[in-house]
Amino acid sequence: MESLLNTLIWAAIIQGFLLGVLYVSSKKHRSLANRLLGFFLFALIIEGVNNFLPVNQLGSYDLSKYFTTPEVKLFLPLFFVHFVLEKLGRSSAYNNFLRFHYGLGLLVLAITSFNLLAFLFTGGNIYSLFSYAEIELVFMIQQYYAFILSILAFAISILEVERYKNLVKNEYSDYSLLQINWLWQFIFLMVPILILWGVELGSILLFGRGSSDIVLANWGLVVILIYFISYKAFRHQNLFEENPNNMVEPTTQSTAGPESENFIEVEKEITSAMKSQQYFLRHDLSIHDLAKEIGLPARQISTCINRRFGINFSEWVNNYRVEEAKIKLEKPENDHLSVEGIGFDAGFKSRSAMYTAFKKKTGRSPGDFRPSKVS
Predict the structure, then answer these.
(1) pLDDT tens figures, 153-183
(2) Predicted local distance difference test score (pLDDT) of residue 316
(3) Of 154, 164, 207, 370, which has the fewest Cβ atoms less than 10 A away?
(4) Residue ranges of the chain with per-residue pLDDT less than 70
């Protein structure tokens, strides 16, 4: 079993290298996010080689000691979270965080470079300058710091996706249009890896040694991660690429003040337009589409909806769809039509979006409004 897993891991390492080259050099899908994805794979590959290298010597150069091969553990969470942030258009908000840790990662990587240069030019190494205990201490500190950084990267990724999820509800009438399940999957694939990594480090801390079975299991998960990346993340363009910086933060602040009168007028205009023109029937309606149709700035419409109605754009549009669907559901002559079909005609693009909107607005399911259920 172990030999089979080793074979799969080396196959994944080779495939990961080829994928990394593709992601970094692709012209069709060229982006900083995809280059970061490629660097993430290269870091995984180096870690894989470090863990499963079948030899301990390269000529007279010792490969078995600390820092004799490149240490890139700090780069793993960095490339991971930088990729997520780049997909969300949020890298600039974390510039100082990213720069500091890239610098720290390069500093750790420089230890191996120094060791190699010392070997090439003097025949010595860092063990000639420092004791084994000192070098081991530095190695373990960067190990634990990399683990803590990975947890932080995981938390940042979740917080930022949730932040944009809420912001996007001010931009799109159907949140499912964003299709970000692949990003959630990418992020949560880190959970079992973090757990096994934590168990491994805990074992070292408590018993002075790790478990080879845990290392193998962890790398089995890395194999899955590499294949997942190849089919999911690379093919998706950056989210909110067109207007990430123009998105309006939700607000329900008081409308008292000189701008209150303006929002009242905007409320009348957008309400009248939505009722008369039934823009909510468009499945892919966005706030920018509505702004173009009625000739008002998207930011003004969004702020008006937030403040006058206390809800976001998505909920505001879906409320009209709920009312439209209710009217059709309550008519006996529509009994032959499916609930989903009526929802689609009312503007809902998916069954889940319809049921969620009904539950939120009425506390009931769409089917409850059928004449047979009402009576």
Answers:
(1) 999 999 999 888 777 777 777 666 556 778 8
(2) 93
(3) 207
(4) 1-3, 5-6, 174-179, 209-216, 229-261, 373-375
